[in-house]
Amino acid sequence: MIYMERSEILNDLAAAFRWTAKLNMHEGIANHFSVCMPGSNDFYVNGSGMHFSTIKASDLILVEQNKIEELKKKPDLVDPTAINIHGAIHKKVPQAKCILHIHSKYSTALSVLKNPTLPPIDQNTMRFYNRFAVYDDFGGLGFEEESNKMAACIGNHRVMLLANHGILTTGQTVAQAFDELYYFERACETYITALSTGKELNIATPEVAEKTAQEWEYYSTGFGKLHLKALRSILDKEDPSYKQ
Predict the structure, then answer these.
(1) Residue 237: Cβ within 10 Å count
(2) Largest Cα span, the chain
(3) Which of 33, 52, 195, 218 is the most exposed place for a label (fewest CB within 10 A)?
């Protein structure tokens, strides 16, 4: 992970929770975001029963990989599905220093389609052209076996659509993972909305889609950091309690 002070990493994650709630992409007290500290697979995650809109940096709970079995016996502290899914992926997937997992409206709608692909119909969908994994072996809420299968599926991708479940994004930083989450949800919104018209889709050629995806990779270098910085500046004015 790019070096950052612990407090700033946790402030970033708390801001991501708050903004996800503002976008109505949360699911009450369900779903989880987590982040590792530099040089470690131990991670901070939201505790049980906390609404995304109220989470502060000081609320985040440290999960040490060598104490996971212990924590599984304390579901009132951390949801067992969070410990399993995030614990397995942080441990086994090098690019997953931050993991954001939600059941947002449009990504989840895509996940329940028989063919959960995202055709290249606009710039946002083209960003993810051949650039996300699909975990299509839904086997329950996300306990140990399910979590290990998820970790094996994601490969070198930063985004994984969970069939019949939702979306999971990763990054070296909170900013990177949040930018992927935001734009994937926007891409899904465009696609699901276009499908609802019943009209034929204008799908770009593979050549144009790949070219645009590569351009996104170049263009978005540092873009996620600027995106989250802008959101934090709004939160700083509206409700800076996320940093407490």
Answers:
(1) 8
(2) 53
(3) 218
Q: Report the distance separating Cα 231 and Cα 158, nearest Å.
A: 21
Q: Residue 1 above 90 pLDDT?
A: no
Q: What are phi and psi of 165, to 5 degrees?
A: -145, -65
Give the burial class of 130: count Cβ atoms within 10 A of its Cβ; 0-12 exposed, 13-18 middle, 19 or more buried. Answer: exposed
Give the separation between CA 231 and CA 198, rounded to whole angstroms.
35
What residue has token string 């290990």?
A: 148
pTM of the model: 0.95
The predicted-structure confidence for 134-176, as pLDDT tens digits, reads as follows 999 887 655 678 889 999 999 999 999 999 999 999 999 999 9
8 Å CB contact between 201 and 121: yes
What pLDDT sits at residue 63?
Answer: 96
Q: What does R_g of the chain's alpha carbons equal in angstroms?
A: 17
Residue reference for tokens 């770009």: 204
Name which of 37, 34, 39, 83 is nearest 60 in CA terms: 34
Element (H, E) at 100: strand 98-102
Q: Are 40 and 90 in contact (CB under 8 A)?
A: no
On whether the CB atoms of residues 179 and 14 are closer than 8 A, the answer is no
CA distances from 13 to 6, 8, 34, 186, 242 (A): 11, 9, 8, 20, 9
Q: Which two tokens stand for residue 237?
A: 């004015």
The rounded distance, in Å, linking the Cα atoms of 73 and 234 is: 39
Structural domains present in the chain: 6-228 (3.40.225.10)
DSSP at 30:
B
